[in-house]
Structures are given as C-alpha cells and as structure tokens.
Fold this protein.
Amino acid sequence: MARRFDGIVDMHVHSAPDVRARKHDDLQLLEAAQLTGLKALVLKSHHFPTSERASLLNQLYPEVRTIGSITLNEAVGGLNPKAVEVTASLGGKIVWLPTIDAENHRRKAGLTGGVRLFEQGKPVSALCHILEIIADRDLVLATGHISSVEIEPVIREAFKRGVQKVVITHPEYHIVNVSLKQQQKLVSEYPVYFERTFAQPLKAGIYKMNMQTNIEAIHLVGYESTIISTDSGQLENPDWADALEDMHAQLHKHFPANKVDQIMKDNPSKLLEI
C-alpha cells in the first residue's frame, strides 16, 4: 500500500538543481510528493531563490502546493531588500536569514567574515528594511543559522516592526544550539514557532538523527509552537519520503494523533496560509 501523507506540509526541503549535489531533483521530489498526497512543501536553497521553480512545479504537479523561498546568503547579496521584494512578488513565502554565510555559522566552522545583522548592538539598516518588507507582504521570517544570542534581539525587532510569523530554524542544530530553557523563555514571551528537523550534519558527511531530541523538546515547549520539517535532500540521508514517514511514525508513538496533526498539518498550514 502506498504511503499517504494527506494534509501534511513540509516547510524545508532541498532539491536539485543546486550548488551542492542533492538526493533528488525537483521533478523526482514532486513526483514522490504527489504519490503520497502531501499537501504542500517549501523549496529551500542556500544559494538562490526558489520562487520561479515553484511556479513551474505548480503547473506540472498541481496536486501538491510548491512554495518558494529565499535565504539571505552572500549569493543573493546577503541582506538584500530588493531580493526579498522580488521573491514575494513571485509568490515566495519564507525569508530565511543567513545560513551558511551567517557570521555565527562561519565562526563555528572556523572561518571569518559572514553576513552581520548587528553593529554596536543595533540591527543594521538593511535588516530593518527587510523586516518591514516581511511585515508588509505578510511573509514568514525564519532565523536561519544565526546564533542563539542573536535570535532574541532579531525576534524583538521583527515584532516591533510588524512581522506576524516567526520561525526559529532547527534550534537543535549544533550551529544554532538554542537550549530548551531558552526555547521555553522565547515561547512564553513571543508567538514564535520552532522548526524541528529530521537530522543535522556533523562532519565528514555524517548526519545525526534529531527525533529523540525533538520529541523531548515538544514535550517541554509544546505542540502549539512546533512544526516538523524533513530538511531533506542530502546525499547521506534517507530519501525524502522515507524521512517523512520515519518522522510521522515516531511522533505517533509519543503523541496523540490530533497533536501530530497539529504539528505536521495545522501549524505549517496556518503559517503559510494554505
């Protein structure tokens, strides 16, 4: 019997074409998603916007809603307000702050430089402009690979400027590393969501499975603020459908069915307004 993911939304999937080799290309991914009954997915690239690809994929595979996004790394000019405006105009819904080019990510990888969000303790003007665009276009702000220290000031500035939808990107990822205590504090003060992902890269092509950590976090931080994404596409990880099936099965072992639906269906659908 074919696997069914009716109503599920995956808000973070990588596919080819990409700078990095991927497990599947766009067509393979959407063919698999269509067979499972998936409601929607968000295409993510660290290097370029995906809204144009999403538009074409929606014509080819109308049964699955494909949504574009942009990640504010150096390949798109870093904190580039115009790139955010263009992405929104083409139907993109998620703006990720820098990931692999974040100053925090660079530092933890033993590198220098990176996209800086703050100068002398204040948000740089380009970040402020981008937050205003996100607010005006009702987009989702995702925190990317910025540090746990930067996350709270970014969230505060975002809500101050009218942003309504904020997702803290894979807080369990060792580059981000938001403690459970900090997660509890953030969710008590702001209406944020935590995106918990299937696995995370370590070194030399080795990936660590995150589900046990995620299950503990959901128990402590709550269902209402949780979304689950595969973050799939890495060559070292299982196929996208296998990853989603594993996540779905593990969540059902630990939580009631209605809470799993809230995490995998209702919360992401609300964020994306679909």
About this structure: The radius of gyration is 17 Å. The longest helix spans residues 257-272. The chain has ten helices and 13 strands. Residues 170 and 196 are 5 Å apart (CA to CA).
